[in-house]
């Protein structure tokens, strides 16, 4: 088991190296490969052997990894799954984004997910994602890019021109958000984002044989590095804590204990409902389970004995806004992961699955907390209810308490990711996990 210091160092590095779901999956794939997980291709036949570890990706933005159990073992104990999501709210570049106004080149952006927009102003922004191009010999191929340095900014309007800004600041996503990239000296009509990306790939990435950039999936992100902050370094501050923190914890727990029957699922598009080929509402997990356990009766019996821990960040009680929480359910940072409960099924936790999580926490000597949204407020959701509905696997929703969720920079406790790691590591090795 890693120490909290070593664990957080790895977490910060992972957050910094994963500005998009594509980069997150690539980084997880590399770490899993180093630990002996073999990459499978969905388009090829699979020859799965008990005790061997595998992984498979879809769309380059979702990944499932597992260690294959013996069928008799799976029928008796089920499989132990941890689920998270790879995407985070952000600003994505539109397909025809070119804007030239008053001497400035800007890119039009689309809001992805429930973005807290105000913190995006006056930040040093970079650009990352996937670029798809045609080679000179006619093949289609893709390349991940991460410009890393600050290439854009969304300047605020000066207070002198908006005297009421501190009383009410509303953001018009179409008008207010296009970032400024540079001033132009030549004819602005000549600027084409695809030609610009082609030049970038050739000059900065060393990619050759590009005939034409055809399309892209790019997003802006804050260049400020993930860091431990506070007088005593009590907190982790970073973009994409929701939910790359959970992805990293799940991966490290799986690597720590790659025992037969252990599985990790990290899927894309949770922030927009998970309804995609590689999202939790899509067929990805069921497709993998069907190939692991081809017989319907066998698969149904295995699922009945299984458990999914859906790991997604929770809302910590904010000391400036305590009235936004139920008084008895206000999670505190660094006081342990949070079991998330909603009787209207926005979370998939049941009393039985919650009891299992609490027992794991007792054995791992980790504190846990509980969250229920105020009765007069709407509740968010996770991949937990979606996956439980799609597969029939009993599920518990859990996550580390967080401030400023969906902001460009979120805040979590420096101990809580490690606490969750201890629980998930225990989950993967403890069998059977019953009360």
Give, in spatial order, the strands making up the sheet with the most strands: 1-2-3-13-4-14-18-16-17
CATH homology superfamily of the largest domain: Zn peptidases
Major sheet: 9 strands, mixed
- Tally of domains: 2
CATH topology of the largest domain: Aminopeptidase
| CATH level 1 name of the largest domain | Alpha Beta
Q: Whole-number radius of gyration?
A: 23 Å
Tell me what the CATH architecture of the largest domain is: 3-Layer(aba) Sandwich
The assigned structural class equals alpha/beta
The count of DSSP E runs of length 2 or more, i.e. the number of strands, is 20
Low-confidence stretches: none
What portion of residues is helical?
A: 25-40%
Mean pLDDT: 95
Task: Note down, in words, how this protein is organized.
This is M18 family aminopeptidase. One of its GO terms (molecular function) is aminopeptidase activity. Its EC number is 3.4.11.-. By secondary structure, this protein is an alpha/beta fold. The protein has two domains: 4-88 and 239-429, 3-Layer(aba) Sandwich (Aminopeptidase), CATH 3.40.630; 90-222, Aminopeptidase i, Domain 2. The chain is built from eleven helices and 20 strands. A nine-stranded mixed β-sheet has the order 1-2-3-13-4-14-18-16-17, with helices on both faces. β7 (125-135) and β8 (140-146) form a beta hairpin. α3 crosses α8 (296-304) and α6 (241-256) runs parallel beside α11. The mean pLDDT is 95.
């Amino acid at each position: 088991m890693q120490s909290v210091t070593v664990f957080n160092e790895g977490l910060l590095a992972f957050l910094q190296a994963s500005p998009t779901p594509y980069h997150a999956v690539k980084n997880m794939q590399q770490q899993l490969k180093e630990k002996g997980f073999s990459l499978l291709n969905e388009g090829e036949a699979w020859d799965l052997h008990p005790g061997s570890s595998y992984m498979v990706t879809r769309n380059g933005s979702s990944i499932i990894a597992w260690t294959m159990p013996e069928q008799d073992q799976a029928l008796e104990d089920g499989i132990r799954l941890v689920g998270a999501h790879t995407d985070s709210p952000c600003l994505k570049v539109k397909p025809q984004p070119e804007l030239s106004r008053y001497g400035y080149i800007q890119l039009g952006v689309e809001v992805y997910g429930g973005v807290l927009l105000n913190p995006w102003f006056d930040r040093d922004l970079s650009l990352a994602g996937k670029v798809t191009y045609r080679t000179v010999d006619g093949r289609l191929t893709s390349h991940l890019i991460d410009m890393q340095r600050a290439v854009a900014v969304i300047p605020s309007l000066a207070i002198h021109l908006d005297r009421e800004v501190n009383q009410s600041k509303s953001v018009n996503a179409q008008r207010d958000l296009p970032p400024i990239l540079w001033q132009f000296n030549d004819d602005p009509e000549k600027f084409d984002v695809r030609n610009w990306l082609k030049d970038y790939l050739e000059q900065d990435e060393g990619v050759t044989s590009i005939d034409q950039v055809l399309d892209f999936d790019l997003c802006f992100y804050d260049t400020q590095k993930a860091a431990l902050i506070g007088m005593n370094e009590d907190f982790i501050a970073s973009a994409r804590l929701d939910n790359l923190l959970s992805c990293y914890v799940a991966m490290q727990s799986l690597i720590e204990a790659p025992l037969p029957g252990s599985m990790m699922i990290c899927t894309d598009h949770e922030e927009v409902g998970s309804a995609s080929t590689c999202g939790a509402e899509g067929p990805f997990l069921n497709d993998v389970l069907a190939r692991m356990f081809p017989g319907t009766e066998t698969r149904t019996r295995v699922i009945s004995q299984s458990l999914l821990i859906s790991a997604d960040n929770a809302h910590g009680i904010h000391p400036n806004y305590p009235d936004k929480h139920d008084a008895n359910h206000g999670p505190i940072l660094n006081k342990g992961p949070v079991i998330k409960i909603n009787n209207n099924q926005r979370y998939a936790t049941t009393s039985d699955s919650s009891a299992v999580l609490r027992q794991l926490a007792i054995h791992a000597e980790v504190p846990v907390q509980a969250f229920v949204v105020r009765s007069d407020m709407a509740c968010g959701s996770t991949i937990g209810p979606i996956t439980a509905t799609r597969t029939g696997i009993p599920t518990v929703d859990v996550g580390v308490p967080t401030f400023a969720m969906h902001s460009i920079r979120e805040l979590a406790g420096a101990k809580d990711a490690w606490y969750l790691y201890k629980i998930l590591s225990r989950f993967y090795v403890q069998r059977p996990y019953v009360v």
